[in-house]
Amino acid sequence: MSALLMLGGTAEARELAAVLHDRGVPVVSSLAGRVATPRLPPGEVRIGGFGGPEGLERWLAEHDVFAVVDATHPFAARMSASAVAACGRAGVPLLRLERPGWRERAGDRWHWVDDVAAAAEAVGGLGRRALLALGRQEVAAFAGVESTWFLIRSVGRPDPPLPPRHQLLLDRAPFTVTGELGVLDEHRIDVVITRDSGGDQTVAKLDAARVRGLPVVVVRRPPSPGTTAVTTVAEAAAWASARADRAAAAEESSPDGSCSLDRAGG
Ligand code: NAP
Fold it and tell me: What DSSP string describes 108-177?
């Protein structure tokens, strides 16, 4: 039977895989392989890059995939662009599941920047002791910042080079406001640096910064990949279930049992 390919690595991807698994929809979840001990969704899992859009297109041709859901992180722009190109060429329906970005609230002191390089430029003017919580692949952008001490928090050890004055805090979401207030106070943090990842798993640092009146440097998201998109797991589950039903009907009506999907639409 054909399956749905889930480009994952996020809490939403795991949640959606679980919902579809419960509904009997076959799902193959794909992870980048950046985390040594990833949280795994139910169902089949494959790990590692495809080899660019061409590699993903080949993978789609070699596997019986009735649809793709791109539920990768909002900052995983290369994977998303690759999915748009490969699915377009292979004629496989593609849906983007992307959680909404965070919204500023009364009392917030956010400074929006376009990328991590701009965040590295901004931080010196805002504080001397920074909580740097934006993913281990992005830390190197701060290697040249000497004015600020960094508490670098990430799931795995950050990729070098690292800023000259820092301490590592290896930890993984979800975080609580109480816990985040403790981190800010213990390390005398006076500025927080984050990406606009959205979602509730890592939002507590923003709540804690508001409580303490601290400035926050927020890195804007890259542009959306430009495909049909939804923001909730429920919407994505409805889309995927409808396509699974169509795929099952097409397989039943096909004389040799093979899939003869109308791949249009997406
Ligand atoms: P990226 O820059 O979009 O992806 C780089 C390459 O990694 C892709 O071209 C692809 O390789 C491979 N890849 C990414 N996601 C994949 C998936 N789900 N399945 C298979 N291959 C995948 O994304 P990134 O390097 O993973 O991360 C960019 C930013 O997003 C980082 O700052 C990271 O912290 C954040 N982030 C990403 C994920 C994630 O699951 N990707 C999760 C949490 C946070 P090929 O071109 O070879 O196919």
Answer: -EEEEESSHHHHHHHHTTT-SEEEEES-GGGGGGGTT--S-EEEEEESSPPPSP--SSEEEEE--S---H
What is the structure's pLDDT at 261?
46
* Atom of ligand 1 at shortest range from CA of 78: 3
204: Cβ contacts below 8 Å, ≥ 6 apart: 174, 175, 176, 177, 179, 180
Is 50 close to ligand 1, i.e. is its CB under 6 Å away?
yes
Copy the structure tokens of residue 81. Answer: 């662009």
pLDDT at 263: 44
pTM: 0.90
**Is the CB of residue 59 below 6 angstroms from any atom belonging to ligand 1?**
no
Q: Mean pLDDT, to the nearest integer, of 48-66? A: 97
For 188, the 3-state DSSP assignment is coil
Rounded distance from Cα 77 to ligand 1 centre (Å): 8
What would the mean pLDDT of 205-231 be, rounded to a whole number?
Answer: 96
Atom of ligand 1 nearest to the CA of 56: 48
Interval 116-125: pLDDT, tens = 999 999 999 9
Mutate to test the pocket of ligand 1, among 4, 35, 69, 73 (most ligand atoms within 8 A of CB): 73
